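Quick note —
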Amino acid sequence: LGGPQDEVAKMAGEFDRRRRVIVAGLNRIPGWKCPMPQGAFYAFPDVSGLFGRRFNGQALHGSAEVTSFLLEAARVAVVPGADFGSDRHLRISYACGLDQIREGLARIEAACAGLEG
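Predicted structure written out below.
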């Protein structure tokens, strides 16, 4: 705790960069609203703007259905927000590298663009 903090500052800066990239990317997707996380390394976007849209003929209603849709259509794993107190939200980690974050965002955006309704 009393030693050099150079690496800590470097990693904190990297997580801030990842946080800004994921939030901006999620907010570009129609139907998604993501506030800037204040701690940890998870985004908690509101995806209720997707509710009622259809994937394979089934309407999306709730975070578990959106989670299943993203896994199947985008091959992106997220956690239902219902597990954290809000069925309108998803929990998405940004503890991976920027290339993976950008790839995931591209997949999510493409999958959402293919929703019906």
